[in-house]
Amino acid sequence: MSNSNELNFLIHLIQDNKRIVLNLIPKIDLKKLIKITSKELLIPTLFFKLKKLKLLRYFPSDFIEYIQKIHQINYNRNLKLIEEVKYISKIFNREKIEFVLIKGSSFIFDEEYILNERMIGDIDILIKKDKLQKAQQKLKDFGFTNSADLKKIRSSEHRHLPRLIKKNNLFAVEIHSRCFSKENKIISSEIIIDKKIIKKWTSIPNRLHQLLINILSFQINDRGRLKFKVSLRSISDSLIIMEGEQKTFKLVNLNKTYVNEYLSLSEYLGFNKLTKRINFKRNIPYLIIYKILNSNLHIYLAYLFLVKWLGIIIYMFKK
């Protein structure tokens, strides 16, 4: 299965390849484009990039009106996000609780990106295990309560505590003891916290750790590695993380399981702007399996069915 025109369009739009994007515009189906961008949480990016590249005039007015409206809603939401992150940061700073913003909220100082492109659902915060309960209780002291999804947290070994919500706040808060659902040897929560960057009123990961969190969250938590998929939003995040950091990433060897496969597949699909900035070796066996699975839809669906049932069996034996 080769890339659709709509997927190719988005791959090059994310990378600001205006000439290729312009050539693909007559070939795309707008309904399919909206379906993909909705699934990938990229409608604000679609509007912002088309505006930035001065390509809005090539699209119908009702289409532009629709994506602009969603962009504006997200822009206003993320202005509120910044306020809510400031409020929570002040609580933790006052109580001397070490913390690091992770995932979407870690882009809080990439202002153009977080306001114009990034769609965010929760405020994710990483805290050392011995301070988890204190952090949760302090937020409860300031009016936060457990959300209705308490039953979804299966055990104390889950990577985050039950989500907290507060009346009149837009964003729920998830307090994490670790970033990933599965332990790995690439990076630990302790290192992320110890090497954090304190900026203004909050703390964020350093750029290398932010990149690793972004890649491993998709590969492990979202099972991107097992599904032989990439996330356009994840790659968009990676590109922002790497802006102005080319030398830093060229000096780091990222030939690690999960990371290497993510980069290899990204390069194969055409994200050259990302992969040319990183020192890694192409994972040929992983790409061969990808090509086999994607040669036929039935083969790929059979593979996903097998993976699902193997996962269920392994889970039952662990119990």
Which terms would index this structure?
single chain, 319 residues, mainly alpha, 3-stranded mixed β-sheet, 55% helix, 7% strand, globular
Structural class: mainly alpha
Q: Kindly state the percentage of residues in helix.
A: 40-55%
Low-confidence stretches: none
Strand order of the largest sheet: 1-2-5
Number of DSSP helical runs:
16
Strand content: 5-15%
Instruction: Determine the N-to-C terminus distance.
Output: 38 Å
Number of strand segments: 7
Order of helices and strands: HHHHHEHEHEEEHEEHHHHHHHH
Mean pLDDT: 90
The major β-sheet equals: 3 strands, mixed
What is the overall shape?
Answer: globular
Q: What this model shows, in words?
A:
This protein is mainly α. The chain contains 16 helices and seven strands. A three-stranded mixed sheet has the order 1-2-5. The chain has a two-stranded antiparallel ribbon with strand order 3-4. Strand 6 and strand 7 form a beta hairpin. The radius of gyration is 20 Å and the shape is globular. The two termini are 38 Å apart. The mean pLDDT is 90.
SSE topology sketch:
Blueprint: H1 5-14, H2 18-24, H3 30-39, H4 43-52, H5 61-94, E1 100-102, H6 111-116, E2 122-126, H7 132-141, E3 145-146, E4 164-165, E5 172-176, H8 189-194, E6 197-199, E7 202-204, H9 207-221, H10 224-227, H11 232-242, H12 246-250, H13 259-269, H14 272-275, H15 284-293, H16 297-318
Parallel strand pairs: 2-5
Antiparallel strand pairs: 1-2, 3-4, 6-7
